[in-house]
Amino acid sequence: MAFTKYEALAAIVEEGSLTKAAQSLGCTQSAVSHSISALEGELGFPVLTRSRGGISLTDEGERLMPAVRALLNSEEHLRQTASSIRGLDSGTVRIGTFTSVAVHWLPIVLKAFQQDFPGVSVKLLNGDYHDVEQWLADGSIDIGFVTVPMSIECKCIPLMEDRLLAILPMGSRFENYAKFPLTECEREPFISLLESSDHDARRALEAAGVKPNVRFYTKDDYALIAMVEQGLGMSIVPELLLKGRSDKLRTLPLIPEAKRIIGLAIAAGDKAGPAVRKFADYVVRYVVEA
Questions:
Q1: How far apart, in whole angstroms, are the C-alpha atoms of residue 104 and residue 234?
Q2: In sequence order, what are the beta bridge partners of 57?
Q3: Is the C-alpha dihedral spanning 179, 184, 190, 192 positive or negative?
Q4: Predicted TM-score (pTM) of this structure
Q5: Using H for helix, E for strand and C for coil, what is the string for 68-94?
Q6: Tens digits of per-residue pLDDT, 194-226?
Q7: What is the pLDDT of residues 228-242, one digit of tens each?
Q8: Helix (H, G, I), strand (E, B), or coil: what is residue 152?
């Protein structure tokens, strides 16, 4: 079976254009276009539609994509198994992550992993919790950093408990507080991540029976921090996100205490390829030794 046609389709869906897909595959745009034409000819229906807004999947293409991703994942598993027999000198690991892990853990883990396995390529996707779970569910990534519990069925390795902290502008009325009462979120202007991203603060607030006085929403963690720094409100964030930063903020533990559990989810579970399993080992070792 020629996998190039399916690889071309997956690349177009991921990159959003023929040009970018060709660049990611290391071939010409005409070769990608030819692969799609050949695939549509074999299938007997169009998989892509082109408009002024760009390229998108047809309804038939949408129905086809889960099977395409499963096929490509199986091929990658075969490659990794063969590589493992030879000494794990090739393969691809597709990783999904959120900001705090992408900034504070992954650079160190990836450096060690690439030094030991230079032939294994790594593809990194950065998003929020919802994005990572969606990528795991649809097969776009092999392994993803998540918060536990998560909304999808997946093998998950708990990694670390991470405290949640209140962040406030300097000079706020809580300057001399030792801890921040969550009930104050009902009175203070609150800056929130989007609902799909804000699992941590929302779980803490709901557990305390508190409805926050939300004034602003954002999807970006560091935009949220900058807004608090400018005195636009307060928020609740994981401690790992603040590691090594020197923002002009007041940080306080919460009353009642709250935390998140960071986990590592493996899409294929025990059937994951050897490169994916080896990368997971490196992550676990780093967290244990850090």
A1: 23
A2: 48
A3: positive
A4: 0.71
A5: HHHHHHHHHHHHHHHHHHHCCCCCEEE
A6: 877 778 999 999 999 999 999 999 989 999 999
A7: 999 999 999 999 999
A8: coil
